[in-house]
Amino acid sequence: MDSLISIIVPCFNVDLYLKDCVDSILCQTYAHWELILVDDGSPGETPFLCDQFAATDKRIKVIHKSNGGLVSARNAGYKAAKGQWIMYVDGDDWIAPETCEVLIEKAIEHDPDVIFWNSQNVLNGKVIKGKYRWNCTGNEKVYLHEECKDLARNTLIYTSGIATAYSKLLRKDFIEQNQLWHNPKLRQGAEGLEFSLRVFDAAKKAMFINKTFYNYRYNENSISKTVDEKNTGYLVDCFKEIDLYIQRNNTREYFLSAFHQRVMYVLIAIAMSTYFHPSNKDRLPVKIRKYKEVIYNNNIFKDALANGSVSELDKFRKITIYLIKHKFYFLLPVISGAKQYLLGKGIFNY
Fold first, then answer.
1. Closest CA relative to residue 156, chosen from 219, 245, 218
2. Strands, DSSP E only, in the chain?
3. Are 84 and 171 in contact (CB under 8 A)?
4. What is the pairing mode between strands 5-11 and 126-127?
5. What is the 3-state secondary structure (H, E, C) of 222-257?
6. What long-range pairs does 309-317 form, CB within 8 A, spacing at least 24?
7. How many CB atoms lie within 10 A of CB 173?
8. DSSP letter string, 34-64
């Protein structure tokens, strides 16, 4: 087993967590890997920590670049990668010690374009209950041709748990043949979803391993969790790109119901995490005005509210969509507060 895995880790303001991430890679039972730490113009200690880690192990490389966002950092790491296989890990997350060994064994045995596996969310050292996972009862499963198209559609199904750039191992020549680097028009937001949809849509063979190798640290200070209205724009950009992609490939009808459902999740997410989050200091009328502008300035949101089905949403989200559809925006701070409380108890799927 001498295939090289390139593990690409974007790093931005991860001073407190980067050691856990790097240690999880240093502890891999499979040793033939390279770790590419991409310092995305981070302030604080992150650039210094990256250089320190590189000085301890020749398999660790560092790229220092100006800040360009998660997509830019992943692409910079990809361009420097020498491996036959590519894996993305976020700088505040970590992987299980046996991850690379198991993945390479399966890669050699089955020669898939992409291997994917489960992840779990961790908040303050506790696993958040009810993490959505791919629905597979066996230990592993291989998907061929049209089955991969179904995987692509399922990236849009929120509960599928397969829409992230992490928890995937990709063959580099497959990436090259299909130009599957991260979309440079995007910065962050739902960039992993847009990427994963294209990956599965292009794949001829995909493999699922029913193991939880990836630990996602639910960090309230991370980019995607910060109360910042710019994040709304990043999400809108991602879903516009997804809509263009499925239109260009004449597959919009096949993807449309799943697309509408995912957009409704986004509407809920930006309400809970930005406009009506307890940390948002705007007065309620201002919050409502801004949120209404987001909906009515973007056709993807209006179409989803008008045509999307709520049948597969959980009760919490059905209630939230009902309030949004009927313009009971003044109740959304209550919903957001309840969500934050339940998340703190480790029993809410964000």
1. 245
2. 5-11, 33-40, 60-65, 85-88, 94-95, 114-123, 126-127, 140-144, 168-171, 205-217
3. yes
4. unpaired
5. CHHHCCCCHHHHHHHHHHHHHHHHHHHCCCHHHHHH
6. 309/257, 309/260, 309/261, 310/264, 312/157, 312/159, 312/261, 313/261, 313/264, 313/265, 314/349, 316/348, 317/264, 317/265, 317/268
7. 11
8. EEEEEEES--TTHHHHHHHHHHH-TTEEEEE
Of 88, 66, 64, 62, the C-alpha closest to 7 is 88
251-255 long-range contacts, Cβ below 8 Å, gap at least 24? Answer: 251/201, 254/149, 254/153, 255/152, 255/153, 255/156
The answer to whether residues 28 and 99 touch, using CB atoms and an 8 Å cutoff, is yes
What are φ and ψ of residue 346, in 5° steps?
75, 25
> How many degrees, rounded to 5, is the angle at CA 20 between CA 18 and CA 21?
65
The pairing of strands 33-40 and 5-11 is: parallel
Q: Which pTM does this prediction carry? A: 0.92
Max CA separation in the chain (angstroms)? 61
pLDDT in 10s for each residue of the chain, 350 residues: 579 999 999 999 999 999 999 999 999 999 999 999 999 999 999 999 999 999 999 999 999 999 999 999 999 999 999 999 999 999 999 999 999 999 999 999 999 999 999 999 888 888 876 557 898 889 999 999 999 999 999 999 988 999 999 999 999 999 999 999 999 999 988 999 999 999 999 999 999 999 999 999 976 554 445 567 888 999 999 999 999 999 888 778 899 999 999 999 999 999 998 999 988 999 999 999 999 999 999 999 999 999 999 988 888 899 999 999 999 999 999 998 887 777 666 665 54
Which of 83, 61, 79, 85 has the alpha carbon at shortest distance from 11? 61
Q: How far apart are CA 246 and CA 251, in angstroms?
A: 5
Contact 81, 8 (CB under 8 A): yes
Asked if 319 and 310 count as a contact pair (C-beta separation under 8 A), the reply is no
Of 6, 10, 46, nearest to 224 by C-alpha is 10
